[in-house]
Amino acid sequence: MSTATTFRLRGPADGTHKVVHESPSPSHLDHGLGVLELGLGNYQAAYQMLQRAAADRSQPDIAVVAADLLEASARCGRKLAAAALLMCLAGTARAAGTPLALGLLARSRALLAGDGLAEDLYLEAITQLERSHDPMQLARGNLLYGEWLRRRRRRRDAREQLRAAQDVFAAAGSSFAERAWAELAATGQTPRKRSVETQNNLTPRERQITRLVAHGATNAETAAKLYISAATVDYHLRSVYRKLGIQSRRQLFHSSSAHA
């Protein structure tokens, strides 16, 4: 991607999420599914979907897409692509000056930094994302920092970050919960059992459908992705609505988080 690319960053309060949820474009759907795969640790699949999403520069949340694509690129070993994305993010994040923009920038820089700089950048990212009032992006900062700490054998410090991330992800029904769960287990600690209340008693199939629909997929698109019928998707969605005490896709979006 050219370093001359310009990204725009807007927060969730500007109505962007409403547009994504009510009338998802192909690029919005690619973004949602890409983040889903990113949470599951399927980095190559995430990269391909997020690359398609980033090609649509008209998205009002394109800078968030770019940060997600940068993470997928870094995890796939695409260092040149990740470096180009970082240069794009740097200018727009500093121009925006919001905690979310600066937090995503610091988090992205940390992913590409050497050991001498990475920790300070992760801490900066977490500080900024705490101020952004975006719990999912903060939890993703905790997760990445926890992963970094664990790989440097700082298991006690890693557990603190990973537990914080996993609690948020599990409560939101996010695909990132499984990644945080696995990282916690790798530190030698048995992750907390997720309660019925946290899981809302959803079945595995209901959780799959919830994640896809929350990211903007229609019933037909969800059915195609899971190789089931649209009628089956509708049946499971009605069960999800009942269990979560909600009545609309908009409420489902906020319950599951489109950043999950």
What fraction, in percent, of the residue positions are helical?
over 70%
What structural class do you assign from the helix and strand content? mainly alpha
Biggest sheet layout = none
> How much of the residues is beta strand, in percent?
under 5%
Average per-residue pLDDT, rounded, comes to 80
Contiguous helical run count: 15
Helix and strand sequence: HHHHHHHHHHHHHHH
* Morphology call: globular
- Please mark out the parts with pLDDT under 50 across 5 or more consecutive residues, or reply none: 1-23, 194-199, 256-260
Q: Distance N terminus to C terminus?
A: 25 Å
The total of beta strands comes to: 0
Q: Name the assembly state.
A: single chain
| Gyration radius over CA | 18 Å
Which tags fit this structure?
globular, 15 helices, 260 residues, 0% strand, disordered C terminus, single chain, mainly alpha, Arc Repressor Mutant, subunit A
Question: What does this entry show, briefly?
Answer:
By secondary structure, this protein is an all-alpha fold. Helix content is 73%, strand content 0%.
